[in-house]
Amino acid sequence: xxxxxxxxxxxxxxxxxAYRRMREGALYLxxxxxxxxxxxxxxxxxxxxxxxxGLGAAWTFPVVVAILIIIGGVIGLIGLWGKFVPGVRRLAxxxxxxxxxxxxxxxxxxxxxxxxxxGAALLLVVVGIFIVIVAAILMILGYVGLIVLxxxxxxxxxxxxxxxxGILFIIGIFVSIASFIAWxxxxxxxxxxxxxxxxVPPTPTAPPPITPA
Length: 213
Hints:
This protein is mostly helical. It has one domain (about 1-200). About 80% of the residues lie in helices and about 0% in strands. The chain contains six helices and no strands. The radius of gyration is 22 Å and the shape is elongated. The chain starts with a helix and ends in a 14-residue tail after the last helix.
């Protein structure tokens, strides 16, 4: 009985560790979304502002957008490589059902984001546009991984927030604001899962019946 309780405590602690890494990574990605979103809006309004002679939007717009993507990409990479991807991998070690989503997120989001940054830096040449297209395809694969992750977490944790996040990640493939909301929901849901895992006591295992002599 004591061994069973100890195993349950260790298992819960492992899930908490995975969830906590994923939650911290989600926070980084939320911040990255905010920076890129606010910067993009600023660029949109600056296109109508008065500019000094000789500084046309033809070159200033892609340069500013490239800088914004790179800054947001660096923050996103820190969140993905340092937190979210290791958390999902840890989750896949604990539960093999998360193996597919772990692979898709790593290959799609992580490498897609790296290629997106490289493509943004080369946006003024043709090869940069090609790299951005490849990166976009990989990012879609990463979103598929996030969708599967949300649905699997819903099955495991029975939280509607995970299901809502998974659905919003589907919409986010076409409407980026939906992805931003999905990351927020995922962040909140992971926090609830951490709290539940830390507060719910392990289920005691009944001792085996005593056989009379």
